[in-house]
Amino acid sequence: MTDLPPYLRPFVLPVADAGEVRVERVGHVDLYHPAGTARTGAILLVHGGPMPADLEVLPREWPVFQGYATAAAQRGLVAAVVEHGLIRGLDQLLTAADDVEAAVGVLRADPRVDPGRVALWFFSGGGLLAGEWLDSRPDWLRCLMLTYPMLATPPGVDELVNAAEVIGKQKDKDLPVLLTRVGRERAELAGPVAEFVSAGGAALDIIDVPKGQHGFDMLDHTEESRAAVTKALDWAIAHLGEDPTATSTLPIPTPTETSKVSPAGSPAKKTTTAPRRPTPAPKAAAVVETAKSPTPTPVAEKSSTSIPSVAPDLTAVVATAFSFETPATRVVEREHATYAAHDLEAFLALYSPTAQLQFADGAVLRGRRSLREYYQPLFDAGKCKTELQQRMMLGEWVVEQSVRHDTDQGPVPTIVMYRVQDGLIVEVRFLA
User: Fold this and answer.
1) Most buried among 12, 48, 86, 302, by the most CB within 10 A?
2) Does the record's keyword annotation contain Hydrolase (predicted)?
3) Range 327-430 has CATH code 2.120.10.30
């Protein structure tokens, strides 16, 4: 174990003996689904940063985060691990905040999740992203958790919202907050944590790990560590109103892109040149199998002599293109569902941060912020209705013929092309 880098050491809790956990990768988020079909509360795990430039395995493949997510799913919650921009440095705080916001949308849009019962759990440098949520306290946020957090930026780095400044403020909504504090914390982190505790007062619950160090949940395999992690999970379940023994007959569709999770161990090392959304290497704790999109069969050119021999192949191609479900169609269907539900944040979360929309008149929107500015008035006015008439799938493209009811001109026939990569929409073209 000592020959491994710290981040590849095993999680302190055993997670090998529980039932099935299914994992689905959606863009930069890994979703861990419990067995059964009950709609449940959910936890989003937010890793820290920045990371070394030569990092070989990215955080959502670390045994510690796979372990937390698996343990939560084994106890009946949907858990998610987000990979965010803080990997690349503290100058990426704004990008990381956008990534976490998008991940929240993905998690709340998942059909297994009760969107009104979500917890956010920040670790280490991820604590710098917690202040905004402590300040805004959306209705769906049931509780917020911090484990050995970094709560103040170094000199010269602009912070977002200081957690200590907002936790003690009177808000319309009481938000339960849990701090897991280690006794052997680094001095530069311990000071801001002490200020946070002083400001939090009665609003703050604390789990102390007196002999623990930063990263105790993967470095200190002791009863004290296991007890602290177990207490934190118990606390989250209690505040999410979750009963792991409850059953439900709610008809929730079973995700297709899933796999069984084996015991959380050390993943195989891999080399990567792009920190964001890398091609996942095989890992012991969770192997995500992605369904392949169908490759269209080439169709011979029509001629008077070839029609009889080509007709059977053409029929097969058309049947496949119009009826086969692909990972791309599942993403587009989620986009449509969030649009119809007037859930702007969940809608935007299904788009890449650099997504491009091209309209029939040549106008182009680039990036999630531009999409927000364009769609916000439609969502606010409740004008989010589209009637799907026909769909065709070709690889990572989804082509739809539909009727729009979101304009002042009445029903408008339209053709739209969606391009999906790594579980996110990267391009949309409105052709008519």
Assistant:
1) 86
2) yes
3) no
